[in-house]
Amino acid sequence: MSRTSSRHITTQLVHHAYEPPAGFEAPQPAVHKASTVLFPDVAAMRAREWKDKTGYTYGLHGTPTTYRLEERIATLEGGAQCLLAPSGLAAISTVALALLKSGDEVLLPDNAYGPNKALAEAELAHWGITHRLFDPLDAQDLAAKISDRTRLVWLEAAGSVTLEFPDLIAQTRICRDRGVICALDNTWGAGLAFAPFDLLGDGSLGVDVSVHALTKYPSGGGDVLMGSITTRDQQLHLKIKLAHMRLGLGVGANDAEAVLRALPSIALRYRAHDVAARELARFMAKQAPVAQVLHPALPGSPGHQHWQQLCGAAHGGEGGAAGLFSVIFDARHGQEQVDAFCDALQLFRLGYSWGGPMSLVVPYDLPSMRECGTAHLATGTIVRFCVGLEDVRDLQADLEQALAKAFGG
Ligand SMILES: *Cc1c(COP(=O)(O)O)cnc(C)c1O
């Protein structure tokens, strides 16, 4: 079609001949949006291979924008292949659907991300897939619960809300020795606190699958929902990719662009969140109403030594940790008093999720969340803090004024 086409202007606007010159380059990659992808001829359409990223068939199966983000997340995680899903939870459920069938069993740590447990209790149970919970702080409990029906083991370091740090090396070794696939929910570590596919630093031990809620630190804005599934084994990747395709999971180009834009600053942000969270966790540990502060980098926090070993603090370094900590208020303070503390906070806003610029706080009902023993946790009401990017002195002042208001002096 030429510019002087005799076709109607509406047709010309759809089938426009102009192509911008090639060679445009900018720091931020272009955003490619598509459901339909065009082919030059029928032969090309028939021959197009969608499995290995050598081309494009349909927007759902990948665009230059999603391929680019997948490659960068694979690099962040130290994996070889990556798939994107519309949320962290969708990434979790895709792994489960791809790898489990009726009659199989999946094992989860007792402190797993709550909706992962809910998926096992509801949908997986309906489909004849059973689950068992293991004690995250007792690797032998995991070993004892693996049976010949176990097809998948979920691991999480640190655990959700209570932030116990497991012996991930021992857990991964047990799964490998027993021939069971282990999938790590790596949202907390974010590919920065430790290397999920190379836990010992010598290439000899790693998880099989790493799932990451890109919603958190990779997005960094509190404004995108996305998840990733990273692997090193090509066959395992292909198995999950087929399920991912058949389930019709894809992500929007603008969301992928938002994550691509935030990714270069992830290490700087992670470090800033980490430094501020440790300072505030130490501050909270000194407050009278507080029975226990849970943060893996704090000596005495459950699994602290495993965190030291895995996250680079064993040899005198600072180590890395996410900007999260939880506080258990002494049982002498009732739920109402703790709720009043949360309500009195001004900079820490009430809201789920984490990883964005704004500090957040959520009170949880711990007894309803756990089945295995929690003797390592104080009794009382638990509150989780996610530390954002505000000045840490302002955040501490906010905690001080809310403590005074809710608990006095
Ligand atoms: C937030 C989170 C998820 C789920 O991510 P969404 O994108 O909100 O679905 C999964 N695992 C962990 C540990 C999380 O913190």
From TrEMBL:
Keywords of the record, alphabetical order, are: Lyase, Pyridoxal phosphate
**What would be an example GO MF term here?**
pyridoxal phosphate binding
User: Which top EC class is named for this enzyme in its record?
Assistant: lyase
EC number(s) of the enzyme? Answer: 4.4.1.8
Its catalytic activity?
Answer: L,L-cystathionine + H2O = L-homocysteine + pyruvate + NH4(+)
- Names of the cofactor(s): pyridoxal 5'-phosphate
Where on the tree of life does the source sit, at the highest rank? Bacteria
Sites bearing N6-(pyridoxal phosphate)lysine, chain numbering? K216
List this protein's GO terms for biological process: L-cysteine catabolic process to pyruvate; transsulfuration
**Family that this chain belongs to:** Belongs to the trans-sulfuration enzymes family.
Q: What is this protein called?
A: Cystathionine beta-lyase
